[in-house]
């Protein structure tokens, strides 16, 4: 009896790759938490306690970067290495790692493995996935290495050879994986005016947030006209959101002494550019997030909610989801029945999917924000805006904070941990993992249409 | 030359009923503002000034109820009657009024008049619109009269015969039109424990927010099974949102001394019920909105954003829009290609329309909130949550406030005025009014489909 049930469970699992992904990520987080919970991981020599270890591990695996303790001060080198490994595995995606292992030990990739990877990377075809995985691994390490070299030009003179190299590697990986962890102690606030640090981190973050399929398309086709529709939408949306974020940040914060008010004009430009890059979804900051005006904080919340592009290390509802929604809205307003862009028509099911991602995303953010505002009502120094900021930062796996993370209650820590987890896997993957299968329809019968008034 | 251009403009207008609606409402608001700007409208005998007169007129015509001055204390009887007339005209819809006038003077209803009304009432067929208009007018006055009689049972003993009748009529109209204006001075806070006031106002608000087509369907078909899909969705969503609002308010505010904490259990139930009714989109309140916890305020913001049902005196994105979106999300999660409910399939174009309403609604709220948080940065006593509350209240033509309306700057007043206007006409009507016509497609050519990854 038990054996049959177990077998049924296994078959169920096989038929639901989303569930495998969810369980795999969860397992990785628990392994990480167990290691970070060891006394040797904390500089004090005393265990941090399981809730905080779990929080930190989830934050690393989900490449979020929210921290309840200062990463630089609290952890030993062992702890920091554990975090870095979790970031790298989380960033590459555990199935990409699993595929790598399979390749290394010569195991054949099964159809099921491919199905899981398809879910993870959000690809449409099964073919070419192995090639894609190899591409992902190699390009990740090459890009991170180049990034580390650039950072070393600043960090080695600043911190000495050994520590400089270690800092360069750590922050290159953290940036490319959009993890946002730093071991400097105040993120990039010390380097607010350093062009090399700002641009290296920014470029790593942007590259990490574009998604691997975009690189491949760009390197293979070279001309914008020849790109896939997906690539075109990712590029246009990414550039659009960067420009929007840059301009609003620069204009609104121009005279704010708590952020860029006291910087030179050139440094204002650098800092505004950096702050437009990082909400999507890097989590570094070169100016204090608590010091921004409410309007800027709200803009950052929206950018964090949108996040990066699919199949990347970024979180959020994704640039393409936002792009498809915008196009659909414009089509409705213009009275058009087809949603078109760049001479192509976007299928209805994609628009429905985008609507579902937006809807579930909003629902998660609303529920978590409301719950936190009830459980964290002792945080008198922090406003509702700060709590919303924290929630969306977790959902978008961004890692920016207005400063309240260390003051969260235990319940608050667990809620944010779960939010980071849902945010990394994506609302739809979570929903697919636990949704009841649709009932089989009898034949081709469809219900009759009936109209309904909306709006 | 000028004549030809004028003629072109007129033809343009005829072909765009949404534009006629927008201009008609705008004209009504300006007429109201001119009257309220007269010295005789203000109790002090001095003109209130045009910006505040415009704000009040827009708030009345758009049945919102946000006020920069206390309605009871500031206005003369003349001013109050002007406001009441604006509410009644705004509530019935100016085109319904125009049709009434046409009927009275025996003018034939033209196809163009019908097209405009179709836009206004959001109906699908042109036939039966005249019948519907007659039905709207008669039922409005009958329901308001009955409501006034019930209110008189409390208000006449409280305020004497003459003033009691005047208060009963004013608040019955204000409630049924979902206007939220009161001439008591503190909304319904004096009557927080009065069952007759609470239930009369609540029933008027709910009836006013259902939409006329729902009444007609219910009176004609009587059984739920026989109702139109539209009616079923309106009823299920309305009841669902009421229950949700009631439970959350009761549980969250149970011990809050600033709202219902000090009331008896029975009064707690009454007050929670009342507060679950009014965000959609009545604008009365029996407990202080500034006193609610952040979580409750956030819930009210969401209820205000959703609002009432189409073709009613209510604002917001509408219950059916929310219902269609929920159904579409569930369908995507379950892997279904058809969006179905009650044995009917919802057409794709309706789902697209719902997405557009949600998208434009969110965009408006985001832009207005950000702008206000910049222009009103002198309001140190009011938080970002209060500003969001104010914005959504205006957009949903609700009229609830955490208390900052009288402290808005002139720019803030104008922004809220415009937001109320957009909220009353609906985001899509506004968009239709000003959108460029779609270019003519050559033949039946459609662009080829191309997929794109979202979420
Ligand atoms: K991050
Ligand atoms: K109202």
From TrEMBL, chains A, B:
Q: Which domain of life is it from?
A: Bacteria
- Which membrane topology describes this protein? Multi-pass membrane protein
Is Transit peptide among the key words of this record? no
Q: Where in the cell is it found?
A: Cell membrane
GO MF terms held by the record: potassium:chloride symporter activity
Q: Which GO terms describe its cellular component?
A: plasma membrane
Q: Which UniProt keywords apply?
A: Cell membrane, Ion transport, Membrane, Potassium, Potassium transport, Transmembrane, Transmembrane helix, Transport
Record-linked Pfam families: TrkH
- Which residues span the membrane? 20-41, 47-69, 81-105, 132-153, 165-184, 196-215, 227-252, 258-278, 290-308, 314-333, 354-374, 414-435
Q: What is the protein name for this chain?
A: TrkH family potassium uptake protein
- Record organism: Anaeromonas frigoriresistens
């Amino acid at each position: 009896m038990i054996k049959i049930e177990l077998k049924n469970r296994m078959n169920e699992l096989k038929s639901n790759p989303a569930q495998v992904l969810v369980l795999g990520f969860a397992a990785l987080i628990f392994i990480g938490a167990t290691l970070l919970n060891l006394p040797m991981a904390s500089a004090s020599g005393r265990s941090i306690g399981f809730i905080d270890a779990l929080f930190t591990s989830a934050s690393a695996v989900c490449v979020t970067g929210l921290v309840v303790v200062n990463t630089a001060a609290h952890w030993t080198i062992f702890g920091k290495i554990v975090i870095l490994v979790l970031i790298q595995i989380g960033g590459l995606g555990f199935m990409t790692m699993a595929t790598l292992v399979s390749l290394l030990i010569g195991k054949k990739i099964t159809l099921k493995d491919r199905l899981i990877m398809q879910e993870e990377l959000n690809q449409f075809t099964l073919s070419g996935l192995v090639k894609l995985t190899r591409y992902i691994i190699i390009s990740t390490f090459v890009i991170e290495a180049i990034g580390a070299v650039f950072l070393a030009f600043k960090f080695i003179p600043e911190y000495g050879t050994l520590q400089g190299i270690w800092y360069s590697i750590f922050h290159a990986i953290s940036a490319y994986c959009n993890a946002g962890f730093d071991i400097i102690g105040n993120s990039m606030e010390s380097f607010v005016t350093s062009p090399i640090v700002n641009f290296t981190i920014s470029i790593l973050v942007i590259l990490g947030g574009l998604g691997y399929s975009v690189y491949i398309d760009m390197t293979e086709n070279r001309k914008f006209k020849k790109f896939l529709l997906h690539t075109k939408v990712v590029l246009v949306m990414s550039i659009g959101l960067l420009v929007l974020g840059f301009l609003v940040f620069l204009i609104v914060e121009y005279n704010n002494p708590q952020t860029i008010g006291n910087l030179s004009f050139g440094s204002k430009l650098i800092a505004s550019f950096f702050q437009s890059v990082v909400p999507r979804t890097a989590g570094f900051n070169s100016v204090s997030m608590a010091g921004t005006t409410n309007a800027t904080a709200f803009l950052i919340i929206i950018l964090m909610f949108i996040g990066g592009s699919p199949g990347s290390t970024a979180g959020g509802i994704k640039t393409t989801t936002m792009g498809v929604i915008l196009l659909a809205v414009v089509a409705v307003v213009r009275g058009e029945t087809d949603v078109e862009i760049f001479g192509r028509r976007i299928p209805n099911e994609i628009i429905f999917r985008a609507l579902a991602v937006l809807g579930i995303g909003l629902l998660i953010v609303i529920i978590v924000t409301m719950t936190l505002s009830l459980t964290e009502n002792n945080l008198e120094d922090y406003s509702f805006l700060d709590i919303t900021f924290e929630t969306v930062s977790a959902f978008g796996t961004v890692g920016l904070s207005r400063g309240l993370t260390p003051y969260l209650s235990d319940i608050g820590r667990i809620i944010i941990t779960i939010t980071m987890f849902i945010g990394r896997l994506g609302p739809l993957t979570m929903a697919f993992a636990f949704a009841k299968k649709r009932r089989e329809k009898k034949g081709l019968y469809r219900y009759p249409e009936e109209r309904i008034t909306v709006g």
